[in-house]
Structure formats: C-alpha cells, structure tokens
Design brief:
Number of strands: 12
CATH superfamily: Autotransporter beta-domain
Helix content: under 10%
Number of helices: 2
CATH topology: Lipocalin
Largest sheet: 12 strands, antiparallel, barrel
CATH architecture: Beta Barrel
Number of domains: 1
Distance between the termini: 22 Å
Strand order of the largest sheet: 1-2-3-4-5-6-7-8-9-10-11-12
Length: about 270
C-alpha cells in the first residue's frame, strides 16, 4: 500500500505542477511477438504475444525543468503445444520523472515508479533511475539510462539492475532510425543463480500525420539463468503513438515531449 501511495503521489505531483503552458505528452499502443530457439521446449512450439499500452503527460515548470507522470501496462499471453491452457502475465508501472532539458543541447534527470507483476501471484517493486541524452545535432541523438528495482513477493526478494543505451538518426523530417542496447542483472535471495540478460534491437518510427506515428522494430536478446544453455529470443514489434502539445518534425517532437520509461520493471522476464 505504501508503495502504491508513493507512486500515486509522484504522478500527482508531476501532473499538477504549476505551469503557465499546457501539458505535453503522448499515448501509444503496440504489439510484440517473441520467437524462441526451437530446441528450448523439446521441439514444441511456443507462442508468446505481448500487448502494450503507455501514456505520459508533463509540464514545463520553468528554468528548463519538466516534471511528468507516466504509466505503462503490458499483457503477455503464452500458449504451447500440448498445454491444457494459456498462461498470462500482466505487468504495469505508475510513476513520474523530473528532468532538465535544453532542446539545443540535451537532457538529464531521474525517474521513480511503483511496479507490479501479476502471474497468478503478485510481486511489487519500487524503481529508481537516472538518465541522460545528448542532442548532438539536428539529426542525431544518443543517450543512456540506468535503474534499480527492489521487488518483494511470495516470500522472496529480487534486486534488479538495468542499463540501456540508444542512438537515433533522423533521416528526414518524418523518419527516425534507432539502435538500442540493453542489459540487466537480477539477484534472487532464494537462489544461488543470478538472472542476466542483454539485447540489441533497431526500430524505425515514421510520422504519418502531424501528431501520429507508426513504429516497427526487430530485436534479439539472450537470457542466462545459470541453468545450462542460454535462452535466445527474437522479437518483432509494431506501435502507434499519438503526440499532444507538440508540433514540428519528428526530432522536434522527440525533444519537446515527455520521456518514455527507461525500463518497464527491470526484470528479464523477458525484456521487462
């Protein structure tokens, strides 16, 4: 309960910050399909589908500082050959971010969020993170983020560290090409094995209309749980995003809108 109140307070602070200008932000919905190495389940087919919903709104509170509230929800649906029924995992986070940003230079800030994973049982965590971006030119941006998430649930505790990095090239007023790297390490107090993962991916975002974009992506990740062979996976994704309170080229909207969370939860289950 205290964690939920903390996250609600951060979001409320971000969304009600005193500012003369109206809010900026975005809302997005997407789908991802994950494909695993064929011999992982004895040759049986596994279908893993993800459905994502994200939203954020923020205010400029002066002196180049912005505060925002954000939420993310993801529903994972798994089905396998011979399994009597499908299996689902619901994941969400609610929190906020505060950051300094100069549209001609870059940004630096921090995030705080309450996170929860429900897979028939619930584990809850509090995530804190730091992030930064450099607007190297009108057509190139790069940045990185690091976060720590402390989980509790089902008599166990989890500590997860996650790092991400990206580079984006704006090929035109409406097109952004991005390369993304990520890695995480999770320590579980009831196990001698740490879970570690790393991944690489790329995506293309295209501005269909003045405030509507479509993104398609492809990524690869591997999970090492100390149980034998690593688990390799590919993912294919598509996302629609609506920006509000911003205008101009895709680069201009990226550099004036709210920020997406650095990570959903920080746990490799996978790519959370």
């Amino acid at each position: 309960m205290n964690k939920a109140l903390l996250a609600a307070g951060v979001s409320l602070l971000a969304l009600t910050g005193a500012a003369a200008a109206g809010p900026v932000g975005n809302v997005s919905a997407g789908y991802t399909y994950l494909d695993f190495n064929e011999d992982l389940f004895g040759g049986k087919s596994l279908n893993w589908n993800q459905f994502n919903l994200n939203g954020s709104a923020g205010y400029d509170v002066g002196s180049n500082w912005m505060v925002q509230g954000d939420f993310s929800f993801r529903s994972d649906k798994l089905s396998a050959d011979g399994a009597p029924e499908d299996f689902g995992i619901d994941t969400w986070r609610a929190g906020g971010q505060a950051f300094w940003r100069d549209p001609s230079q870059g940004l630096a800030g921090f995030e705080l969020a309450y996170t929860s994973i429900d897979a028939g049982f619930s584990i809850d965590g509090v995530l804190i993170g730091l992030r930064g971006e450099v607007f190297a030119s009108d057509s190139f941006t790069y940045g990185a983020a690091i976060s720590y998430n402390a989980f509790e649930g089902k008599g166990a505790e989890f500590d997860a560290w996650t790092g991400t990095a990206f580079a984006t090239y704006y090929a035109g007023p409406k097109t952004a090409l991005s390369l993304r790297l990520n890695g995480s390490d999770t320590e579980i107090d009831v196990s001698s094995n740490n879970l570690s993962t790393w991944g690489v991916g790329g995506d293309v975002e295209y501005l269909l209309d003045s405030n509507l974009s479509l993104t398609g992506g492809l990524s690869y990740a591997t999970l090492d749980g100390g149980f034998g062979d690593d688990i390799d996976m590919f993912s294919f994704s598509a996302k629609l995003k609506v920006y509000f309170g911003t205008e101009g080229t895709l680069a201009q909207q990226h550099r004036t809108t709210t920020l997406e969370p650095g990570t959903l939860t920080g746990l490799p289950l996978p790519l959370l």
